[in-house]
Automatic annotation (TrEMBL):
Any one GO MF annotation of this record: nitronate monooxygenase activity
Highest taxon, organism lineage: Bacteria
GO biological process terms on file: response to toxic substance
Annotated InterPro entries: Aldolase_TIM (IPR013785), NMO (IPR004136)
Protein name (record): Propionate 3-nitronate monooxygenase
The UniProt record lists the keyword Flavoprotein: yes
Organism (species): Roseateles puraquae
UniProt cofactor(s): FMN
Entry keyword annotation includes Oxidoreductase: yes
Length: 341
């Protein structure tokens, strides 16, 4: 056991297709620490999935939320974005895209549901939850973590009272989790970010980004990380409910296919380049989360139709290091081999 009495190998909380009870429970039951990416879940679904996780394992797990984002609804910009999506809707035989009535879940209601679910850890990304929220969650006996892409963000989170900081390196898949400077934070690699945060902070640092095998785990520990969190490698374990098209794209991808894009959500995220990322490169888009909500019907239909060129294929730069990990427990064991107790 390691940080906070938890195993040192954590599964990154991945929202979307990977946000399943089966995957989270398999990681925790397999000797790691599973986390539920609850950012897109309604409060009632957070409650349901947390209960399902508990029905599958008595091991601890975590829940992650996106901090509230500052944005203003822009129907003209949404309409312009929908016009870009319209030909792809037609190609898939879908009705013309329409403006989403709601672009995001109620954060405070999500937070209340997450706290009531009693995870071992409640983590936040894309912002500083603030001292009042942190104190309130900690008062319920939960460990609270924030996500930093640079030292200034780590210091801000520490000042808010978090128990630890997740160092998200530039290699990490999915949305950038920063909040100071640019909207997405800084582009610092894991190898450079982790030791700087370790030196600057008094709270533990958890390494994230570019870690997919035992070598990455050993490197992160050598840099001072108190635990590691791995995302992309867990997308390919047996228990992950990815669509066949998404899984096939991950298995076929080369290292050079990794890209940063705002095309699907309006916020910078790392994934595999495809038709959407290439054709919308450089296009002005509405602020996150408006494109994320507007493109959801296209992405969901494309997944069902096996059309990976229209799916947000989130994945990190270390994807080629872990093609066939087997079960979640097997991957946890492989990663943990190099962690020195």
């Amino acid at each position: 056991m390691s940080l906070f009495g938890l195993p040192p190998i954590w599964m990154a909380p991945m929202a979307g297709e990977a946000a399943s009870a089966a995957l989270v429970a398999a990681v925790s039951a397999g000797g790691g620490f599973g986390q539920l990416g609850a950012a897109y879940l309604a409060p009632s679904r957070i409650t349901e999935i947390a209960a399902d996780i508990r029905a599958r394992t008595n091991r601890p797990f975590g829940i992650n939320l996106f901090c509230p984002q500052a944005w203003t609804r822009d129907d003209a910009a949404i309409d312009a974005y929908l016009a870009l999506l319209a030909p792809w809707h037609a190609e898939l035989g879908l009705p013309a895209p329409v403006r989403p009535a709601v672009c995001e879940e109620d954060f405070e209601a999500q937070l209340a549901a997450a706290v009531a679910a009693r995870p071992a850890v409640l983590s936040f990304v894309m912002g500083d939850p603030g001292a009042a929220r942190v104190a309130a969650v900690k008062a319920q006996g939960l460990v609270v973590l924030g996500t930093a892409t640079q030292v200034s963000e780590g210091l801000a989170l520490q000042a808010s009272g978090v128990d630890g900081v997740i160092a998200q390196g530039f290699e990490a898949g999915g949305h950038r989790g920063g909040f100071l400077g640019s909207a997405e934070g800084a582009g610092i690699g894991t190898m450079a970010l982790v030791p700087q945060l370790v030196d600057a902070l008094d709270v533990p640092v958890i390494a994230a980004g570019g870690i997919a095998d035992a070598r990455g785990v050993a490197a992160a520990q050598a840099l001072g990380a108190s635990a590691v969190t791995v995302g992309t490698a867990f997308l390919l374990v047996d228990e992950c409910p990815l669509s066949p098209a998404y899984r096939a794209a991950l298995l076929d991808a080369r290292d050079s296919d990794s890209t940063l894009t705002r095309a699907f959500s309006g916020r910078l995220a790392r994934g595999l380049a495809n038709r959407v990322t290439r054709e919308l490169e450089g296009t002005a888009l509405p602020a996150f989360p408006q494109p994320n909500a507007a493109s959801r019907p296209l992405r969901q239909a494309a997944a069902k139709a096996g059309r990976a060129e229209f799916i947000s294929l989130w994945a990190g730069q270390a994807l080629p290091l872990q093609r066939h990990p087997g079960s979640a427990a097997a991957l946890v064991a492989a990663l943990a081999r190099s962690w020195r107790a």
